[in-house]
Specification:
- The complex is a heterotrimer of chains A (about 290), B (about 325) and C (about 475).
- Chain A is of the alpha/beta class and about 290 residues long.
- Chain A has one domain: Aldehyde Dehydrogenase, Chain A, domain 1 (3-Layer(aba) Sandwich), CATH 3.40.605.
- Chain A has 10 helices and 10 strands.
- In chain A, the strands form 3 sheets. Chain A has a 5-stranded parallel β-sheet, with helices on both faces. A 3-stranded antiparallel β-sheet of chain A has the order 3-4-10.
- In chain A, helix 1 crosses helix 8, helix 3 packs across helix 4 and helix 8 packs parallel to helix 9.
- Chain C is about 40% helix and about 15% strand.
- The chains are: A alpha/beta (about 290), B alpha/beta (about 325), C alpha/beta (about 475).
- At the A-C interface, strand 4, helix 9 and strand 10 of A face helix 8, strand 17 and strand 18 of C.
- Strand 10 of chain A pairs parallel with strand 17 of chain C.
- Chain A: Pfam families: Aldedh.
- Chain A: One of its GO terms (molecular function) is oxidoreductase activity.
Amino acid sequence: MSERLAVRKTYKLFIGGAFPRSESGRSYVVNSSKGEFLANASKASRKDARDAVTAARKAFPGWSAATAYNRGQILYRVAEMLEGRRAQFVAELVDADGVGVRKAGELVDAAVDRLVWYAGWSDKIGAIRGSANPVAGPYFNLSSTEPTGVVAVVAPGEGPLLGLISVIAPVIVTGNTCVVVASERAPLPSVTLAEVLATSDLPGGVVNILTGSAAEIAPWLAGHMDVNAIDLTGAGAELAVTCEELAAENLKRVLRPPTAKIDWLADPGTDRMTAFLETKTVWHPIGT
Amino acid sequence: MSTTTTPFAEVAASTSTLRAFLHGLPGVDRVGADARAAMLGTRSIKTTAKRQAIDLAIRMVDLTTLEGADTVGKVRAMCAKAIHPDPTDPSVPAVAAVCVYPDLVATAVQALKGSGVKVASVATAFPSGRSSLEVKVADTELAVAAGASEIDMVIDRGAFLSGDYLTVYEQIAAVKGACGSAHLKVILETGELATYDNVRRASWLAMIAGADFIKTSTGKVSPAATLPVTLVMLEAVRDFLRTAGRKVGVKPAGGIRTTKDAIKYLVLVNETAGPDWLDPDWFRLGASSLLNDLLMQRQKMASGRYAGPDYFTLD
Amino acid sequence: MFEYAPAPESRDIVDIRPSYGLFINGEWVDPLGEGRDKTVNPASEEVLAEVAVAGEADVDRAVQAARKAFAVWSAMPGSERAKYIFRIARIIQERARELAVLESLDNGKPIRESRDVDLPLVAAHFFYYAGWADKLSYAGFGPSPQPLGVAGQVIPWNFPLLMLAWKIAPALACGNTVVLKPAETTPLTALAFAEICRQADLPPGVVNIVTGAGETGAALVAHPDVDKVAFTGSTEVGRLIARSVAGSRKKLTLELGGKAANIVFEDAALDQAVEGIVNGIFFNQGHVCCAGSRLLVQESVAEELLDALKRRLSTLRLGDPLDKNTDIGAINSAAQLAKIRELSEAGEAEGAERWSPACPIPDKGFWFPPTIFTGVAQSHRIAREEIFGPVLSVLTFRTPAEAVEKANNTPYGLSAGVWTEKGSLMLWMASRLRAGVVWSNTFNKFDPTSPFGGYKESGYGREGGRHGLEAYLAV
């Protein structure tokens, strides 16, 4: 008996909760770290980026108005779903990153734990970043955090799962929605993650994932007037400068790429959340 | 009864219609009202404007004595001062009125005869207002019969605060009836009403019921007149004129002791109700010690020297 | 009937030099180039002083001085830095009257505002941040937050000394040194502040003041040895700065333009709402980035409110900024006046109805009467563009949702106002307005403890409060 022929997965984009192919019809070859063919991934175009922004904008009012408790629960649910697909992600990481099974397992575990960590922040970040301000007058004065809006994320090339989770979770846990450009070299775990997200009660459009060329797509996102912020973590130096210049057009908040290689296993701190939070201060008189 | 209450006949039909009307008035934000009054208090009134303001303030004074120890002699002396506030300077105008208890009205009327200075009397179980309507009406009638041309009544704050607006309305209307041709000033006793919302509602209630003037305080309760409370009342008379077509006067009373304070009130009138109210017919200052400070300031402006209290009479 | 006689604040209290150099490394120095500019009193067009124009080389000298001073200043214990800043706060209080007069002379704002708003806030801001200097490890930015280095700061002409305070106080508290460029039309209080630094014995180079126009500012922002750029001004210039620092890794905070909606519901405390509208748009001649320049009024009370507003506007007193009874002073410059006129004419041309109270305008100087446009549509330029003058556009709405939609329908997001006596509605509105500051039942209130800054194209970063430290720390 010959071995059964496996049914392969078609790797597509993730936009507005659906899995479309690129409107351009383009795809590109994704090889393993050893150079073996893994799959043809969709190669997103500027129009796919535009559609993703539309989807993210549409999802923003609902997601940002959801209770922090609810957002936390949904992120925790994503962690549960990820845990359930542990074996699949381990295999994908072994293929994509050339790491051993043991190391891949550690990375998937860390990704699950990171989601759980961020899930817990949903209803706490406001408490440590907000303040009741003792103004010199008869006024109640309160500063609270609010999500910035639609955030474009250039995901790191390294760490196709842990790195990816580590840039998505802090953006959405506070109520932002995002358009992510996945690791160009190792995009397949991002598509599998999209399948996790699609089955985790996360409303469609909160996370949109594009695979393809960051150099091609990121500038369109950086210049898009309906994008409020951009995370350039995965952008190379030259692309980052281009994107930062383009981002100036509508004064996007810009998270610049790191100056040193990030250790994704280290304590991430709160910076990735606070980079995409606005502070709103409300005044009201106090009187009878 | 004046015909001007007619437009509000339906409003005054019951406590519930009164309540619906009074609680439908725009609210007053205390902090905002305080800030507006404080800002107007920073107006700098100097030179010619100050001279003009001092004389106007003197003409607006209701020179008042409301003590248990008041006597015929004390009232006569005060009336003399009312006519000639500064005997050494005939250019000083007379005050608007003297304000006394009902039993001393006759004394004041006699002392002020021919001077043009009016006699006002507190009435209606002043200052607490805690008596029956019959007694309040009788109190008013006695004062009017004795020759008072202005009656300063107090409202029943207990009734007002318990939401019994109809009782307050009916008492004001009854006293207005007892006033005959005398002008009725309705004292809200704003220090007991506590909130500016209440001050606005009480102002409208009094005006609907026929008040010719609305007055802040008896002077027996602290706080008495304040700038923001007067601001709220000036807004009420301004709006009442536009709504009902009848002009009502305002009288802050109690605690106004200095020229500086008095001028702040005039600025408040000027920029809230408008210059039409800058007349003794439409604005009064209920005070006693204020008059001497006005005179001292007046003399300082004339002589260029600061004045001393020994040169002004204490009556 | 009751005319207020002129009550001018004495200008003799201020000693203005005929000409000013640059304040670099604790000394007055002449600029290397020939550039000189004149600053005029916008109420009289009288030249107040000649002021140096700093060129690139001058900016470089200032940045070098600041870099050198950074070693000293950042190494100083926070408690010592605090005492210098407290000292500055006290000197400002001592010289408040003089500084208020100087501000009104150079800027055109009424003395009542410079005396009662600007100067008290300036002193309070230094006092507030002085207290932070030795408490930074408790501020929530880690156990030992570090300063950034040299801060290049460019400030506008609308609140010259207050914007200086907003920039310099937190920068110094965090251990940075600064090079500040005041606006070319209002340099005098910044130059007076240089003297205050000397009176306070502040180490040389910790604060440097370079005067000049846009080119000086551009040189400062672009200087490679500047670690931090802070700018308050127009969104247009903010964009240029954001572009120019791209790739440099300079930390950037921007406080830019606005087109705030001031929303009045039918249940509002109307008299206070009228005051809030007036304060919202006519405070400082409307030269306020967070001005309530769009009045959104619920249709059911629109007529009543507009009547009251017009009546109130008729009592505004326009004229000599030094007169203590002046409510509306001079427009800061001929250029700004031209811009206000141009947009107002566009408002008329687009079909909005223009109204101003009878208001005598002085012969000399730059003036614009308080102006209301009714019948304004969202599409009109006067409803979309920042006018930065005493011009109010009035629009109406029917429901809370419509009010939110119209209020947020702008690329700006600096501030908003809400007037209602209903608490739940107020909070509902406050949570939906995309703006960094929401004033409910009040407007244009500021405090050093209260973070200020915008959403969207109104900029990023916050000034004031604990939040304001972040802009000057390496976090």
